[in-house]
Amino acid sequence: MTNNIIELRDVSKSINDHSILSDLNLEVRNGEFLTLLGPSGCGKTTLLRLISGFEDPTTGTIFINGKDVNGLPPHLRHVHTVFQSYALFPHMTVFENVAFGLRCQKLPKDEINQRVAEVLKTVKLEKYAKRKPDQLSGGQQQRVAIARAVVNRPLVLLLDEPLSSLDYRLRKTMQIELKQLQRKLGITFIFVTHDQEEALSMSDRVVVMHEGCIEQIGTPRQVYEAPQNLTVAQFIGEANIFDSEIVAVDGNQLTVNIQGKHRTIKSPRSFAVNQKVHILVRPEDLRVWDHAEVENSNNMYPGVVEEVIYKGTTVDLMVRLANGQLVAATEFFDEDDDRLEYAIGEPVFATWLSGWEVVLPHETP
Hints:
The chain has 365 residues and is α+β, with helices and mostly antiparallel strands. It has eight helices and 20 strands. It has helices spanning 44-52, 94-104, 109-122, 138-150, 168-185, 196-202, 220-225, 230-235; strands spanning 4-15, 18-29, 33-37, 59-64, 67-68, 79-82, 156-160, 188-193, 205-210, 213-218, 240-250, 253-258, 261-266, 276-281, 286-290, 301-310, 314-321, 326-332, 347-352, 358-361. The longest helix is centred in the middle third of the chain and has 18 residues, at 168-185.
């Protein structure tokens, strides 16, 4: 028996012969927090609307709880959507907003009161039941929207960028609260965002989308540390990309030429001699040394500090290498080096520990 609450099989969506989504295959597990991540216009919201029933796929089939729901209207799919605007009824109290769907189902008054009270307690709004939406903060309004959806006990809760209108501090708080709420409820959440940090911090799995296609599906750690291609690598976090070429292959051990220097690295992927590749190094993995600290610069790349950005626990450096490439490095304060003082224009060397890079097939940017 499958543990998938939603399955998409070869789903495509076109509007006026313009392709929005192309041959998507996706399985959403029961009880997981899944995030659809990608830039604006990549098809995230369209995919959410197909699952919810607000739009129909051009081709392919959508299954919810094992049932083919193609052509089934939204109110019969047992999924609920929390929109970016929250769409609360301004003339109703918090209690009335949450109870609205239950009253439409003509449930007994006692059951409505009990279920609304339970869900308001779950989202920590029981003291605000008599307030109107305009008397609430943005975070409280968001919780009302979630409570209104959850009280109907859906199989899946769809959230279309519900945090985008919140300020930075409240957004961080709501990320934690939303994930804790999902664990407590045990309901499958499908969350749409274009914010990489948000996706990595909240999700069980991330679906990275680009131009209507799924580029990679994996845990936050997998999509960050082991991106499948250059598109994912450049969209998920910051990345230094070194163009390179395979000089020699010995099993999973590769010798590559990076800016005239040969480095030996390992990769689980298969590559051939003379094949062009990209070497991905994250800023936190790049190390910067001043000339006084270096005795052997064979595996290092000379450069000049172009920018220094102090961030409290870290210092971000922009270094212009000898070949003109600009790279980013994040240096962390520690007991051995608690000063991290760099000057703009200072000559330095940049390098990284072997094994901390990712080798990707060459793509034309």
